[in-house]
Specification:
With 336 residues, the protein is of the alpha/beta class. The chain has helices at 10-21, 43-53, 71-74, 80-89, 123-132, 152-159, 198-201, 246-256, 285-301, 317-328; strands spanning 4-6, 26-28, 35-39, 62-64, 94-99, 114-118, 136-137, 165-167, 179-184, 187-192, 207-209, 238-243, 261-265, 277-280, 306-310, 333-335. Strands 1-8-2-3-7-4-6-5-9-10-11 form an 11-stranded mixed beta sheet, with helices on both faces. It has a 5-stranded parallel beta sheet with strand order 14-13-15-12-16, with helices on both faces. The structure holds adenosine monophosphate (AMP) and magnesium ion. Adenosine monophosphate is lined by residues 59-62, 97, 109, 112, 114-116, 139-140, 177, 180, 191-192, 224-228.
Length: 336
């Protein structure tokens, strides 16, 4: 299949909407990561997303809207707490799981009777949704199992020849996928951490973190957020997280350095006195979120065989970074 490369000017967005209306799959930029979009109401179009990604059929897609008013068109019962979250954090990187209306096909929801809904902040994404006049189902635009794409180039590498078009927009400003929450009575449950942190959500209502966020779940586990049980974001290198301060990290590297090993560090200061190749993923959690997936792809490109990674904070935006890195590391953590 020939993949059209579109810009973000009006005519390009019209073309993207035309393809989407015709049941095609188009990759679009969003502030979290690039999404692989199709008409959420069109069963066949949504099937094409699963095929292009090689995504397991029971892994549900997030449905993207351009206006809060569209929420009740997708869900028959939107509780007050959901509106409070939407008012506080939309447009933005927050997905809410709510009961779904019948017109959302079961392929979109991975066979569940709920649907994940998000209103992206990215103006290009919202302009495309508005032009379409229907909501867009859009998972991350990577091949299943590889790191989520945060730049046009990442999407092109994974999807060229597999989908109808890619919108060449800005790099993702957040860099990790949305925070996914559901509601237990009047509590918020975080199923996947993201840029909207548990601390921020607790300003709206009591917030708990689901155990799937930090624990390894089996493929047959009954989980609230199906995506969390799959092997995710795995680079080819064997990654280990070193949970320690800077001095202990250096000490551990000195003792364990082998041929083909690279370090994933906050800054070059972490590597002082070490004779090892490294890449930096940033000193603040926000910076780390933005760079992590690019770094994972770069490690592969550089042919790293083993990677020792400095451990991010486990709170705030750092929890999202840690959650992704844990999966990249297959949950291998050395605590010093
Ligand atoms: P992605 O679109 O690749 O960021 O993945 C979306 C993730 O959101 C899925 O893997 C699930 O973990 C979660 N999700 C989406 N819809 C639902 C739902 N109805 N119930 C629970 N989790 C959901
Ligand atoms: Mg994904």
């Amino acid at each position: 299949m020939k993949t059209e490369i579109l810009g973000t000017d009006g005519a390009s967005l019209d073309r993207a909407a035309e393809l989407l209306t015709g049941g095609e799959v188009v990759a679009v930029p969003t502030e979290t990561v690039y999404g692989l979009a199709a008409n959420a109401f069109d069963e066949n179009a949504v099937r094409r997303i699963f095929e292009a990604k090689g995504r397991p059929a029971d892994n549900p897609l997030i449905v993207h809207i351009a206006d809060i008013a569209e929420l009740e068109k997708l869900s028959p019962c939107v509780p007050d707490i959901a509106y409070r979250c939407a008012e506080a954090f939309w447009a933005g990187p927050l997905t809410m799981i709510l009961p779904k209306r019948d017109k959302i096909p079961s392929v979109t929801s991975g066979g569940l009777d709920t649907v994940g809904i998000r209103m992206p902040a990215d103006t290009t994404a919202r302009a495309i949704i508005k032009r379409c006049g229907f909501p867009l189902a859009a998972p991350s635009a990577n091949l299943s199992g590889s790191p989520s794409p945060t730049t046009f180039r990442h999407v092109y590498d994974d999807m060229n020849g597999r989908i109808s078009a890619i919108v060449d927009g800005a790099d993702s400003s957040v860099g990790v996928e949305s925070t996914v929450i559901c509601f237990d009575d009047n509590k918020i449950r975080v199923l996947r951490p993201g840029f909207i942190s548990p601390e921020e959500l607790s300003g709206i209502a009591d917030t708990v973190i689901d155990k799937g966020v930090l624990e390894q779940l089996g493929e047959d586990a009954v989980v609230r957020s199906p995506g969390m049980k799959y092997k995710h974001y795995a680079p080819k290198a064997d990654v280990t997280i070193i949970d320690s301060d800077r001095d202990s990290f250096r000490h551990y590297v000195r003792k364990n350095l082998t041929e083909g090993m690279m370090l994933l560090v906050f800054s070059k200061d972490d590597c002082e006195g070490l004779d090892a190749d490294f890449i930096e993923y940033g000193e603040t959690a926000e910076d780390q979120a933005k760079k992590l997936f690019t770094c994972l792809r770069t490690l592969d490109e550089l042919g790293a065989e083993r990677v020792l990674a400095r451990c991010p904070e486990k709170s705030g935006v750092g929890l999202a970074v840690y959650n992704r890195l844990l999966r990249a590391a297959g949950f291998k953590v050395v605590k010093l």
